[in-house]
Specification:
The chain is of the alpha/beta class. It is built from seven helices and eight strands. The chain has an eight-stranded mixed β-sheet, sandwiched between helices. Helix 3 packs across helix 4. The longest helix is centred in the last third of the chain and has 19 residues.
Length: 244
Amino acid sequence: MPTKTLRIPTADGRADAFAAFPDGGGRHPGVLMYADGFGIRPVLREMARELAGHGYYVLVPNLFHRHGPAPVIGLPEHIGEEVRPELMARLMPLIEAHTAERVLSDAEAYLTFLTAQPEVSAGPVAVTGYCIGGLFAVRTAAAHSGQVAAVAAFHGPVGADGPDTLAEITAQVHFGHAETDLTPEALGELNRVLDAAGTSYTSEIYPGTVHGFTMSDTDAFDPAGLQRHWDRLLPLLDRALADD
């Protein structure tokens, strides 16, 4: 599986990034993958390679590049609950500094870079994200509705910006929520917003999951939840990005 370490020009300097794409040459649909708050690390590289193996060029940027290359903070091999509070205390200032304006500025740079790569085919792209990256994926899809054909977010605060942002999305959507992140009542409210906007979507709570369930290097990891994520994500991308 070919991979690259890249540096993406942005309005605030170059962002380091990781990319994975299929063997054999040729051009492939592009997918912008936003990491969770812990950022680029072995599990994210593994997930990018897994997705690339299904025929996509996957670009994973360092969300907090303004603060240094990934990993921006030191991370243990396994992020257990005993170390999570300390890590989150160090990460929260970076997350808070990454304003919506910065997210959208970076998103434009990432999409410009992604679609210019020689391994990426012409046409629409997809955006996917995890945890806070799920919110960034929503913002990107809303701001680039003519370019983003699919958006998926997993255990992310997808409704944090309110209904107006969700209404701007024209992409096909999948939201996979952790059971501990969203009540059935809140899910109903979110889905009514998507219905009112005329969005083509699936939005569901993954049974038995807690926040962060896709990440195999954390105590939150749920193998069944991760598999359900692939079972929803891959058909979505196939529908939205399949060659004519």
